[in-house]
Design a protein that fits this description.
Largest sheet: 3 strands, mixed
Mean pLDDT: 80
Strand order of the largest sheet: 1-2-8
Structural class: alpha+beta
Low-confidence stretches: 53-59
Radius of gyration: 19 Å
Number of strands: 8
Helix content: 40-55%
Number of domains: 2
Organism: Tectimicrobiota bacterium
Strand content: 5-15%
Number of helices: 7
Distance between the termini: 33 Å
Protein name: Aminopeptidase
Shape: globular
Order of helices and strands: HHHEHHEEEEEHEEH
């Protein structure tokens, strides 16, 4: 990477960090940030620098990576300890019951299944929307061959995630204009594969108990083992 290119990317990353800070302050006032918020956001900013640099090599759009980085950082900025949420008792009795269930499943997965021990699923984020993100898949109309996207860190993936539905619909239409058949679905939970400690999302509380148990263990397995580019194995 030449000096000019490196300088351009440094300015781009600096500008993105400034914009991200302002966007996060619009969501969560600085006075309400805790050590959890600050530590995770610092982690998000550091990782975004790596991802944006990798984007310059992979050809993945910076605009898209800005969108998902800001979306993830916003979630991290809104998380609160589960103990505080339960103590305030602002959730319904059923929702509180599911939070207790998640804590029990997390403990079982760590102590009995040997999955990665972290602070994942010990914090809670109230989303105020039914889905945390949207996944887009596509394929030619005459073949069972998925359209594949290439991402920094993750490698090749047969789906693309978006935090904002309108962005997903925009890309969906572009693919359909190219002749692909598409499927867009809402997502209630996902894993950051151990790069961050994942919070419990309010969208997850819509699951019944059996599906919720399966989801927590499923996502914790992703945190424990993930092979880049091997979607079927994962």
């Amino acid at each position: 990477m030449g000096t000019t290119t490196a300088g351009s990317w440094a300015r781009t990353i600096s500008n993105i960090f400034i914009a991200m800070k302002q966007a996060l302050l619009d969501v969560v006032p600085l006075r309400s940030w805790t050590d959890i918020h600050i530590g995770n956001i610092r982690h998000a900013l550091s990782l975004s620098a790596l991802v944006l640099w990798a984007a310059s090599l992979s050809g993945c759009g910076v605009g898209y990576l800005w969108h998902v980085t800001l979306g993830q950082a916003t979630i991290l900025a809104q998380q609160r300890p589960v103990e505080d949420v339960l103590r305030e008792a602002q959730l319904t009795a059923e929702e509180q019951k599911k939070l207790h269930l998640i804590l029990a499943v997390r403990h079982f997965a760590i102590t009995e299944l040997g999955l990665h021990d972290s602070t994942s699923y010990t914090t809670f984020v109230q989303l105020n929307r039914p889905y945390v993100s949207y996944n887009l898949t596509a394929a030619p109309p005459d073949a069972l061959t998925p359209y594949v996207w290439t991402f920094p860190i993750l490698g090749q993936m047969p789906y693309k995630g978006f935090f904002r539905q309108e962005y997903a619909i925009r890309e969906q239409r572009l693919l359909e204009e190219q002749g692909y058949e598409t499927y867009l679905r809402g997502i209630r939970a996902y894993s950051t594969l151990g790069y961050f400690d994942d919070p419990i999302l309010s969208s997850m509380l819509a699951y019944d108990d059996r599906f919720l148990i399966n989801t927590i263990i499923h996502e914790m397995v992703h945190q424990t083992v993930w092979v880049k580019g091997s979607v079927s194995f994962n």
